[in-house]
Amino acid sequence: MFKKRIAAVAAGLFACHALSAIAADKQVEVMHWWTSGGEAKALGVLKDNLKQRGYSWKDSPIAGGGGEAARTVLRARIASNNPPDAVQMLGFSVLDYAEQDLLTNLDSIAKKGDWDKQVPAPLQRFSKADGHWYGVPIDVHSDNWIWANKKIFDELKLTPPQTFEELVADADKIRKAGYIPLAHGGQAWQEATIFDSAVMSAGGPKFYNEALIKLDPKALGSKTMEKAFDQLRALRGMVDPNFPGRDWNLATSMVINGKAAMQIMGDWAKGEFASAGKKPGVDFLCMRYPGTQGNFIFVTDQFATFKAGNERQAGQYAFAEAVMDPKVQAQFNQIKGSVPARLDVPADGFDECGQKSMADMRTALKNGTMVGSFAHGQAMPEASKTAVYDVVTHFFNSNQSSGDAVKSLVTAVQNSK
Ligand code: GAL
């Protein structure tokens, strides 16, 4: 009897211990750089869904748009053999870490969720290595957008500029009326973001592909590329003197508050308008950067999961399923400003900018012109990207001529290969 009681107590203790061990394990650490108002709100959708699946969220935010700071922290965590369970990644990063055999293979979850069929092929290029799934795409942003303050546009009787020349003329009117034409944040990735649009506008999708994806020296050194730098020079003339170092979301606030008329930025900017309670078509306008109408320069945020023991892997699987849950994809992207990374999510529920983006993506998919963003690491490998960043940001912040910029572009790319 006594023995039995002891055994029962011991069993109870063991159960208790096991329970607390499970509680500790039932947590997924997620590293990301979504710290702005709109970004954080969108992330809440994913957090809630993970909770419903029985896992708590350990938040590891590393502030800094574009993710440069997060990538540095990640490298340090990997070096000390302590990577987070799930990490936000862009472009070639997933493939690089998969090649180093550091990531959890997600094939079984992908099969269950029909990812092969539902995820657009240009995204899969950054999710799969050697035919296996390692990256889970949560969104499809595009960055060839202008976000405009509608009140200023109405007051000055401006309509969305259709050509770059029209944009220049509009900027002139805006400045004369006492507003800053272009809200800009002087950080390398933001200058690179503008450059994406300038290259597309100057040469179209085929040229963009030759130059920024294939890195063809002829395209990189061409007159068309010079025109892209000319656009950048004109845009430099539209910003206020306090632009250096400014965060992207503070630049968005300038448009929201009516200090500035426009911002050229990916559609995560829309998340800031929305989180400030602003409505498209009423308070702000979304328009494609002139000369890029109907084109789609994509930025897809993906999560990769780092190899861990079996218990942690279960959490990673739950996390991957949460990311790809069609309901999460709908709600998350409606808040974030992007469009779903699965093709089976309906367009209703998205605002007019979101619906336009979905339509542009489908057209670009059909025409084979959906191209990855250089600025956000989905056009060229990291080493070349860094080299081109330097050229672009040096040009933007100096008086260099477009001709000289093109020459240093060709050399920089060549040396980076
Ligand atoms: C991008 C990322 C977006 C985003 C932006 C600003 O790199 O793809 O999702 O929110 O940075 O943080």
Automatic annotation (TrEMBL):
- Superkingdom is Bacteria
| Membrane-traversing stretches | none
Q: Transport: present as a keyword of the record?
A: yes
Q: Which spans of this chain does the record mark as coiled coil? A: none
A Pfam family recorded for this sequence: SBP_bac_1
Tell me the InterPro entries matching this sequence: Bact_solute-bd_prot1, SBP
User: Could you name the Gene Ontology cellular component terms for this entry?
Assistant: periplasmic space
Localization, per the record, is: Periplasm
User: Do you know which PANTHER family this protein is assigned to?
Assistant: ARABINOSE-BINDING PROTEIN-RELATED, BINDING PROTEIN COMPONENT OF ABC SUGAR TRANSPORTER-RELATED
Q: Which family does it belong to?
A: Belongs to the bacterial solute-binding protein 1 family.
What the protein does comes down to: Part of a binding-protein-dependent transport system for a sugar.
What is the protein's name according to its record? Answer: Probable sugar-binding periplasmic protein
